[in-house]
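chain below, 181 aa
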Amino acid sequence: MDLFKDLDLIGDANLDKLAIPGVWALFGKRNDKLNDDKFYCLQVYETKNVKDEVEITKQRLNNQFNDKVNHKKYINQFKEVMFEYPSYPSVQEYLYGKVIKETFRDFKFIFICEEHDDNKRRSIEKYFAVKTRSIYWRHGRPHTTGTTFNIDKRSEENLYLSNDVELPKRVSNFLDLYNKQ
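prediction:
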């Protein structure tokens, strides 16, 4: 079964055409002891420029993660070095450059749909993320409390976040296949 047969894979050949607003998702197979050969939705994004977001994500996945503290120089408008300060990896650099890269493999970048309306785009993102139980997706700011992640027993929290939205038939077909794997 080709899980992604109804959706558009994002790759070098079509990336330039995706400098448009829309929704896209990142999938991968587990690379740990579970290694069940199943694709998992890792992240879902709504954006005003799919191409730019995909390029940033690919770069984070391909970068060699460095968890050492770097020191940066604070330089004022007059190009005077004022002081040095510690610089740590961002949560996104850590998430993609270490956690996702070490836990998953065979990444698939998937184009969900083009959407120019900001509210509709956010609704599609939420709906798709909830229906696929996207592992690393966060809507808005991070929560301060939570339960420990267990792939076999996912949390039932916040499943109410999405309202039904009208999706292209190919996306609905994909969601049906995804949830049967």
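DSSP finds four helices and six strands in the chain. Helices lie at 50-62, 91-103, 118-132, 169-180.
thats it, cya
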